[in-house]
Known about the structure:
Shape of chain B: elongated
Distance between the termini of chain A: 25 Å
Largest interface: A-B, 57 and 51 residues
Number of domains of chain A: 2
Number of strands of chain A: 14
Structural class of chain A: alpha+beta
Distance between the termini of chain B: 25 Å
Largest sheet of chain A: 10 strands, mixed
Structural class of chain B: alpha+beta
Shape of chain A: elongated
Oligomer: heterodimer
Helix content of chain B: 55-70%
Amino acid sequence: MIPVAYNVRSLFVRKATTIATVLGVALVVFVLAASQMLAQGIRRTMGNSGDAESAIVLRKGSDAELSSNLENNLVSLIKAAPGVKVGEGGAPIASGEIVVVIAPQLVDQPGQVANVLVRGVAAEVYALRPQVHIVEGHAAKPGTNEVVIGKRIRGKFTGIDLGSTFELNKNRPATVVGVFESGGSSFESEVWGDVDTVRAAFGRNGIVSSVTVRLLSAANYDVFAAEVEHDKQLGLKVQRESDYYEKQSEGTSKFISFLGSAIVFFFSVGAMIGAAITMYAAVANRRREIGTLRALGFSGGQVLVSFLLEAVLLALLGGAVGVVASLSMMWVEFTMMNFATWSEVVFNFVPTVKIIVTALLAGGLMGVLGGFLPAVRAARTSPLVAMRD
Amino acid sequence: MTIVGIGLRNAWRNKIRAVLTLIGVAVAVIAFLFLRTILSAWTTGADNAAKDRLATRHKVTFVMSLPLRYVDHIRTIPGVKAASYANWFGAKNPNAEDQFFATIAVDSKTFLDVSDETVVPPDQKEHWLGDRRGAIIGDHLAKQFGWKVGDKVTLEGSIYPGDWEFVIDGIYTAARRSVDRSTFFFHWDYMNESLSAAQKDRVGWVMTRIDDPSHAADIAKRIDDSFADQETQTLTMSERAMNTSFLGMFSAILKAMNYVSIVILVIMGLILGNTIAMGVRERTHEYGVLRAIGFKPKHLVAFILGEAVLIGAIGGLVGVLVAVPFINQGVGRYLEENMSGFFPYFRVAPHDAILAGLLALGLAALVAAIPAYQASKLNTIDALRRVG
Lengths: 389, 388
């Protein structure tokens, strides 16, 4: 086999061309990795919100909490169903919640508003969602106008910061007494208050949007669902909480993936052409070298492999640059609308080993595809003709 | 021989490279146009919004509604010519639950007057106004589900639970690009009479036509001020502002797509620059000869720039010629018919096509500037000595 060092040194001879090609591939790999990281971030954010050991009950026919309405008397009925875990105090771990969307002013764009989800929760919510921790301040006292906010929206809207007061609705002030985190989930983009306070503020007394219960175990789901959905008159629909949130993220993450793939397709054509041009030039410039190699006894196949290797090396170099650049997106926050709630959720770019390896391999593949025809041409070079040049 | 002729000859000397470069530029132009078209399609609703229309909604949250009596009050406000109201109904076709379309309950007496870009044949309109369960739907929606005038359809309500029966009385088309042609409109009264007392007589938003678009801000303020002391306050803005605020929720994606379209240009520049630089390097010896027989550095610059601009121009032209029919007849038509809610109008804007062509040309000149400059600075003796 022709030593790889030969290819490496060749790449260094024509620095400008090598850099241009590497940059081209790097850009493609960067966009590929970044869009997949964002899609992953969306899945992670929404996925972390749902728990397989919890179940959410909505009005039948409603896809999301926002369009669901349940009468308050159904809450105790659902809580009493078999399979629901009972907390230390003897009360079932469940939360009948009201969900509304408000549009406060953005701090960094004066005059502009954005939608924020406000969730009225029951006192048991911290037992129901153990991933939620107050990181600053304290939990809101039930029955008061105190609210806690997710750490991702802190400071983004006027009045929505620890210690300040804002109006939920006209003459319905709420005071922020705590900031919570919940493992990067979409709850971190929400405002949580007492369920009675929130629904009173919006004239929705006697109604909840959803009821979420903690199950004894994931296996108890079927028993619970069967009981709650048994009476068709009530018109209730049960879903695992994890399924519910996964479905919410489906559209958005698919959309990002699709957009990313479409762009990557066009980009990779460009990058492959760049690699092909570079390799054709390399082959043309090194005809005499190739002739010499052949005269020394290396076979056409070996020359082909060597040039292909060079192209892959070139592309992998670009891939590595692209992946490293895409990792810097980890520090970027991406604010986007969640189609299911019409409110904004803050997402992160989440890299996984799979995404990085795939992106690198895609870079290498561009080298193979772009470098194949030039390598064939190199392999076909006749030693006699080439050395006579 | 002219510069163009020399440029053509030079570019064509390495045929594979010339073809690859042309494809590269053309693909970049196609991708660029595609992204620009997504962006302009996204904002087309805002750009084409009627200037003489205002929308009024609940001040705090779009989830909540306004009392019906607000509508009559708004009609009395100076500057308001007509007002209509509507509710987001949010129903699904039980046979195709995952296919989204908008269902809106409208005040049928005033709706078509205020929303004059919604065009219904007069006889169908007449019939609809007299049919309690009647609905008019967009031509794209009709095509999507194969619904015809006279069909009975049942929708499954989500915000207003239950099965709702309708008769398709008319099919509307749009007089303006911004109109979603896949919406399902029906009588607000039909919805209202089925609701419980607590839900009755609430409207989602009020659409208002005003006499003078230049007074839009004043009239909006007048409307909001008149409800300032009420329990429910309003937020009134121009239709354009409302559409823009909706777009604001996607601003991060729009921004990202804008960046990506710039990155495409960078890739195009890299490909072009690579090709030009290679050609110049290979021809160093020839440039020496040219200089020796009396050509000036400015001639070399002209040769190199001419060749680059030519490649850029041809590549750009090919790209535009492929992209426009591909987007307008293929992708665009598909999106308009199947995703009318998001992309009511998906066509390449002429100024984008011109921009793309000019960018290909300009970028080619830009990236050729460095090799051209280097060639003009060549020492004739050194250049002649260089081989290959």
